[in-house]
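Treating backbone geometry as a discrete language has practical consequences that deserve illustration. The sequence in question and its structure tokens are set out directly beneath this paragraph.
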Amino acid sequence: MAKDAPYSIESLASREIHNATQLAELVEKVGFLPLLYSGIPGFSAEEAVASDCRYVALPDGGWDWPLWKWKGPVVTDGGCVYGKFFDKHAGFVSKAWWPDFCNYRRHKHPAPEESSVEEAILFTLQEHGSLITRELRAACGFTGPKMRSRFDAYITRLQMACRIVTEDFVYPRDRHNREYGWGWSLLTTPEQLYGRDACRCDRTPEESYQLLMAHFKRLLPHVEEQRLKKLI
């Protein structure tokens, strides 16, 4: 994607996404896309999908939600980066924008301090390659009562800092070998998933920030700058 290509929320709202391939193409066009409602009307994958692809509660107590099932293919086949990047909420970033986004975010959120919990989490991921959230939590010793929410807060901070991303999604299977449930994120570092070069940027963090802000202003021209800063 050319970074100066015009693309606004109005054109995003006119799209109707019917499958994972179309969603990946949309992310490549807009550069950044929260998964669910972001507080900015029209700026989410949830609002871009066709009406027949939205969440439906089934009579047997189950549910169907194509968008939820598309997350994995968009990451593994579509080449988009996924994590809790947008004000602690999940969404996608295109590969074209990732170096600048990562550059600025890591400047804004410096590397974890030595012997900190965050450093231990990253070391554990580097040692294992990738782990689902509950495996990572156990490997880091967060097994006691009320530990889950504390650990999830550390993971969210590391995702906001672009130091952890989602490699794929893992689902339990029933006795008929069918996937079910909401699934678990398979976590890793972007360096392990995409290579170190994908996280390098030849601009200063300030230069990356200015590019990002200019892009978001084109994408969301009616949103005030203070709100955009929360996305960047």
Observations:
- Strands lie at 32-34, 56-57, 63-64, 81-86, 89-93, 131-132, 165-170, 184-188.
